[in-house]
Amino acid sequence: KEQGKPMLKDGGTPVRSGKWQIMINGESYKVIVAEAAKKALQTNREKTGMAQNHFERVFIVKAVMDTNGKNVAAAIGFSTRENKIYSFKAKAMLCVSAGAVNCFRPRSVGEGMGRTWYPVFSAGSGYAFGMQAGAELTLMEYRFVPARSEDGYGPVGAWFLFFKAKATDSYGNDYCADKEYFDDAVARYGDYAKGLGTAVRNHLMMRAMKDGRGPILMQTPAAMEALGKSFIEKLGEEEGKKKIKHLEAEAWEDFLDMCTRSA
Question: pTM here?
Answer without folding.
Answer: 0.53
